Amino acid sequence: MKTPQPPPPVVSRYLQENELSQEDKDLISSLPTEKGWVANYLHKYQGFWQATTHMQGALACQKHFQALESDILLVTTPKSGTTWLKAILFALVKREHYLDPQRHPLLTENPHVLVPFLEIDVYTDIQVLPDLSSLAPPRLFSTHLPYSSLPDSVKHSGCKVVYLCRDPKDAFVSLWHFANKLRPVGSGASSLADAFDKFCRGVSVSGPFWDHILGFWKESLKRPESAIFIKFEEMKEEPALHLRRLAKFLGCPFSPEEETHGVVDGILRLCSFENLSNLDVNKSGILSSGMENNAFFRKGEVGDWMNYLTTEMVKKPDSITQEKFHGSGLKRVYSIENLRDFNGFIHPWIFMEFN
Ligand code: PAP
């Protein structure tokens, strides 16, 4: 009798490379390519590094995605708190449909299912284009694409863009953990130093990290009615304030009755790390992109980089931040006094002050 074989391991879409059209293969082979550290390879396209499979999705959505004025697009660099903001956006803009907190879709679906990535989840099949016409407005999508690579229709439709950024050091540490989850069982963790070097050189999914932030920061200054800029650290520090800000920006401010009934706190509780990470759906279960849902919930904290990066190492990203954001108007986002890294060095603020 044959011994039952375990099912083949699900290969995350980050690592898939074989579903490309000839046209995409030709374009990709003409691009600068480096060995990746999250995906196998990264290709420099329109100034930013993209994983092979995201390239296919990016090209397809650039060609075919028709944004509507009522759409909402969440944009992040990987590991900036995308999952959290997806949950918050869904709970916020669809709140009138889900008044019973016991039957909310976020209790049974991972936020990435409710707010799919354009280039990772929506435009994945090179044979069949998705039919997005039946989705109820406002349609919610997300992307890691930089501003320069957004589909033209996003820039011209007047749809709302919500940009979330995070301290590069925390985003890096989070991405390094995520990358390790993608590695074949038994192959151990990838080299932190090697990944850090690549990240600082800009060679990271949707990197250079800093240029990604700057592109959207400038856009939010130019078109404040269409683009809002949010920082993970500020959202952690004053979530209710930023949720109200977001609601106003999206044209669905909280009414006095909702304020009285604690709707703001209800949304924040539902979307909190503690709540989402403890739901069955997020403890087990797998996304269509091949990732386990629990890979998107690790610590959800500010400053975890202190447990991984030495004082010497952090000089690098901090000086890049200082140099790149100088004169941009981006302000210090988070101040914590007396936080020491494991070398005893006090970091007076997490993100940096830009002037
Ligand atoms: P993505 O960009 O690949 O979709 P993203 O959701 O940005 O991933 O990254 C996950 C990070 O958000 C994790 O951070 P950490 O590794 O530093 O812990 C994850 O823990 C954090 N996260 C997920 N959900 C929440 C939440 N509800 N509140 C705060 N942080 C969260």
TrEMBL record:
SUPFAM superfamilies linked:
P-loop containing nucleoside triphosphate hydrolases
- Pfam families per record: Sulfotransfer_1
Protein's name according to its UniProt entry: Sulfotransferase
**EC class:** transferase
Q: Source organism's superkingdom?
A: Eukaryota
What region holds the Sulfotransferase domain? 70-329
This entry's Gene Ontology molecular function terms read: sulfotransferase activity
- EC number(s) on record? 2.8.2.-
Q: Where is the signal peptide?
A: none
